[in-house]
Amino acid sequence: MATKASRSAARLMMAPAVILLLGWMLVPLCMTLYFSFKKYLPLRGGDLGWVGFDNYVRFFSSSAFWPSVIATLVIVGGVLAITVVFGILLAILLDQPMWGQGIVRILVIAPFFVMPTVSALVWKNMFMDPVNGLFAHLWKFFGAAPIEWLSQASMTSIVIIVAWQWLPFATLILLTAIQSLDSEQLEAAEMDGAPPLSRFGYITLPHLNRAITVVVLIQTIFLLSIFAEIFVTTQGSFGTKTLTYLIYQRVLESQNVGLGSAGGIFAVILANIVAIFLMRIVGKNLDA
Amino acid sequence: MGQITLQQVTKNFGDVQVIPPLDLTIEDGEFTVFVGPSGCGKSTLLRLIAGLEDITSGTILIDGADATAISPAKRGLAMVFQSYALYPHMSVRKNIAFPMRMAGVDKAEQDRRIEQAATALNLTDYLDRRPGQLSGGQRQRVAIGRAIVREPAAFLFDEPLSNLDAALRVGMRLEISELHKRLETTMVYVTHDQVEAMTMADKIVVLRAGNIEQVGSPLDLYRTPRNVFVAGFIGSPKMNLIEGPEAARHDAHTIGVRPEHIDVVETDGQWQGRVGVAEHLGSDTFFHVHDTGLAEMLTVRVAGEVNLRHGDTIHLNPRADQIHRFDDKGLRIQ
Fold it and tell me: What is the pTM of this model?
């Protein structure tokens, strides 16, 4: 990219991709903004004109708003905690030389290839069903009364299902990070008298900092908008109504596009707040 | 104290024996260099002493006590790695403090030793930087500093200078030698560079395929190499090794003459040849001589500048008292 000609050629060639991406992002965002200021009820009269900030006030002051924000954050936080902690442990385990390493690694990654809807259905019917589920059988085997997972421990259930899907992703990223750790550093620490736990704490964990940051940031983006898992399991009942699900209900179940759009803008704001916090906490790891 | 004794030590990786039974004693305060070509097992041997690899059989004694089953940390040895192995997320100060922190040395004592090491190694201005902000030579000094503060029974160096450029390497070589004179601690140093071995060592251990070929002071090895391998390995440029009728004239299978022990004469040399490549270093000139009637190309060192060019005819006389003779097994004939 040295000469003027090559620079302008580069811009020209990047243009289609940039324009496509901008359009992809801007058109829906602008439409959402547009609808959020309208009273728009498709089955009850259609476009009923501008209403200013009415939709925002109604969405914000509805009794379902704060619980949905909290549910979203609990799911994001819970899944992040589980995937990072178990991801590190699994990555360390998979880093050990063992027989059949290649196969085991592929098997560990497998859940990531299962569609969210499918995996949620499998969990719901095969594991968490209070009559036929494997967990129910396990509980009965030990003489305990089976838990009705999706109604009694709805939040835990959703977090478990989503964490199961995202664990492979975390493991994979953390495994590559662990493999890039210079073994001489660990040996030096061993010579310096650090027992295994200290070696993990002082050498391995700091080395993983950046990978953990990447895992947390990427997962947060996707976890803020999980939908299928809730749709096929609890349908938003038993306190599992996330912001995404609430918007879905406003738009499709109540047929109120304007109100849902206002919720969509709130979701964008929430995502930005979370992003700012995350960048403050873990983002500095990316600079070094 | 820091005497290290290896008794019948062997090491296998799977079915491959990389160190056949080996005996060696490293005396207290001695600067011992393990030297040999790549893959000769010198680094493995050092790692066995450090305890980073388990030995397959045999015994390692440190100061007379059996250390074979003792963990690396408890052997009282400090190691400097080829990659320096500094902890990238810690400042220089924390890097140097790490072994003391692990050993539970109290804070004041830690600071005192860090100050001392930093002064000795010229690191005082860099204590709060990260390793990533330092040059290669400085990183090397931090690694040495981290080793010094432990006050170990012996230092182990694993090719510590191979990542430095030539000028820095000469400087660090001096610094490590001076450090040894000052601390008078046992040092074991692994290198493939025979110049490093010759300049630094009290005792050189020449290794080939896990076997000790010869142990001795640098000049011992230079004057009386025990076999053809040591003769060819020690000395720069390499000793000329000549086989065939010329060797038979000296009742040997192979004879060896160092480049510096061949004189260039005007006429009537014992050997006459054609100059190939001439390397003019200023202080010395190295000639590669072809077509001498010998199967091998000869290397000749002449002091100072000599006006001979590619293709010129050259007359050579080896010094008779500096010819090394070896039998058909490659062993020296006295």
Answer: 0.79
